[in-house]
Write the structure tokens for this entry.
Amino acid sequence: MSLIQAENLTKVYGTGDTAVTALDHVNLSVNMGEFVAVMGPSGCGKSTLLHLLGGLDRPTEGSVSIDGQPLAKMSDDAITRLRRRKIGFVFQFFNLIPILTSVENAALPLLLDGSSTSQAKQKAIEWLSKVGLGDRLSSRPDQLSAGQQQRVAIARALITEPVLVLADEPTGNLDTRSSDEIAALLQQVAKTWGRAVLMVTHDPRIAAYADRIVFLKDGTIVDEARLEPKDSKDNTNIVADRMKAIA
């Protein structure tokens, strides 16, 4: 059974003549340890898909199950608990709290879930070290590069040991080198740490790190590509060519 299972997922905003279909009967599954990238033109429904899969919004039609739990049958409080414990979110602009250190930012999800300060701090140190920031534990966001801030955000996303990581344009605010480092880290999240990773991106080079690319257009999946481990430039060209074909 897939970790994520979306069936006929549809989202319509507005009613009548002003109704806009952001997502149109999308079917998608993602397995544990799989890294999936979602690509498509602006306004094609990428972020809407991510929000529905993460329980941040409810579909107009269709269903989403996470780890065997149908979101439609859950109360808002239950979905909040599921997000906090089973889903990690990574955003384009990091969303770190400026006055907190790396450890304090990374520890927040555990503190919000009722863990003790000492337990949350120890877990934060563990994950910050895993993502390569063991020497920047006491640094505030303004003392870190953009790439380092995103690493803090990834540690924060992983601290609750989620089964799923949802990343919305995680390299969109980074330079080329930092973008590649973050994409490789997300690849590690899937392959080494066994999480399912679903990433929205517009960049073929970053999408080439994934196992599978899902292409959206006008709210519908119009193509998929499974990438074999090989030269990253070859995979980038494959992704870019498929994007041109659906543009």
